[in-house]
């Protein structure tokens, strides 16, 4: 049996399974409830590394509770369980925690989120991982479905985001390379329009915000990631 277990089979979890064939449990497949660790903790016993891909990702939802329950409280319960074992936790965060920090922000800089419940609770969740565990990997970044699906794309949003199949290859390298700590993960700096054009030639460039808290600059310093590859 694989010693790695993926939690969740959404966009991220499904791509990880596709590229690795690692074991996976999810609400849809196994009827687990991430907000209730008692519904899935027995699945964790046979694995050394737990890869948490579950999050509430309705980014601009003004409702606190679903963000709070899934992105923070459920993560606390998972971390508290893992702390009692020798398991490693791989946890996914977001570049949205950098929205009001400086451009090209590094893992050692202070993250300042973008004033919505999603980014706030994601920051709380990863902070609890750092506080309670010694053996962990936190991945910060953004991934998009490989085929851009909208008719418009922002020219005023810039970052290191990329399509899911590209960034998951980096995730797998980090996980298999036993990387630890916090890593900014992405590719070259680009606008969302630049990314969209790669898979949708007729996409329309727009200069606007879809929500008042939408971050326009989530560029990250990727030197730590580069050093990881240089040392391989």
Question: How would you describe this structure to a colleague?
Answer:
The protein is an alpha/beta fold and 232 residues long. The chain has one domain (4-148, 161-187): 3-Layer(aba) Sandwich (Rossmann fold). It is 34% helix and 18% strand. It contains 7 helices and 13 strands. It has helices at 11-20, 27-30, 64-83, 117-132, 164-176, 192-197, 223-231; strands spanning 4-7, 23-25, 49-52, 88-92, 136-140, 143-144, 152-154, 158-159, 162-163, 181-184, 190-191, 204-206, 217-218. The strands form 4 sheets. The protein has a 6-stranded parallel β-sheet, sandwiched between helices. A 3-stranded mixed β-sheet has the order 11-8-13. A two-stranded parallel ribbon has the order 6-9. Helix 1 crosses helix 5 and helix 3 packs parallel to helix 4 (117-132). The chain is globular and about 50 Å long. The two termini are 26 Å apart.
What series of H and E elements makes up the topology? EHEHEHEHEEEEEHEEHEEH
Low-confidence stretches: none
What percentage of residues falls in helices of 4 or more residues?
25-40%
The structure class reads: alpha/beta
Q: Which superfamily, in CATH terms, is the homologous superfamily?
A: NAD(P)-binding Rossmann-like Domain
Count of spatially separate domains: 1
Strand content: 15-25%
Q: Assembly state here?
A: single chain
Total E-strand runs: 13
Outline, from the CA principal axes? globular
* Major sheet size, sense and barrel closure: 6 strands, parallel
Task: State mean pLDDT (0 to 100 scale).
Answer: 96
CATH topology heading: Rossmann fold
Arrangement of strands in the largest sheet:
2-1-3-4-5-10
How far apart are the termini? 26 Å
Using the coordinates above, name the CATH class.
Alpha Beta
Helix tally? 7
């Amino acid at each position: 049996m694989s010693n790695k277990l993926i939690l969740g089979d959404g966009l991220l979890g499904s791509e990880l399974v596709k590229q690795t064939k690692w074991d996976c449990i999810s609400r849809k497949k196994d009827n687990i409830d991430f907000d209730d660790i008692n519904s899935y903790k027995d699945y964790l016993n046979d694995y050394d590394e737990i890869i948490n891909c579950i999050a509430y990702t309705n980014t601009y939802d003004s409702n606190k509770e679903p963000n709070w329950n899934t992105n923070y409280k459920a993560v606390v319960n998972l971390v508290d369980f893992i702390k009692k074992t020798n398991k490693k936790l791989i946890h996914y965060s977001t570049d949205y925690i950098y929205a009001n920090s400086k451009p090209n922000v590094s893992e050692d800089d202070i993250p300042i989120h973008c004033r919505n419940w999603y980014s706030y609770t994601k920051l709380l969740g990863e902070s609890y991982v750092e506080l309670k565990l010694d053996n962990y990997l936190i991945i910060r970044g953004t991934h998009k479905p490989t085929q851009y699906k909208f008719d418009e794309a922002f020219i005023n949003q810039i970052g290191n985001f990329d399509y899911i199949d590209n960034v998951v290859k980096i995730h797998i390298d980090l996980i298999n390379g036993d990387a630890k700590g916090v890593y900014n993960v992405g590719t070259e700096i680009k606008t969302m329009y630049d990314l969209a054009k790669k898979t949708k030639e007729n996409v329309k460039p727009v200069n606007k915000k879809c929500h008042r808290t939408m971050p326009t600059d989530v560029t990250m310093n990727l030197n730590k990631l580069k050093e990881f590859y240089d040392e391989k």
